[in-house]
Amino acid sequence: MIHDLKIFYGFDYVLAEVALALMPLILFFLFFQFFFLKLTRKQVRDIFVGILMTFLGLALFLQGVHVGFLPVGKQIGDIAGDWHYQWLLIPVGFLLGFVATFAEPAVRVLNTEVDKVSGGYIPEKLMLYTLSIGVAVSIALAMARIIYGIPLWYFIGPGYFLALSMAFFSSETFTSIAFDAGGVATGPMTVTFILAIALGFSETLPQRDPLKDGFGMIALVALAPILSVLTLGLMYKFKESRFND
Question: What pTM value is reported for the model?
Answer without folding.
Answer: 0.80
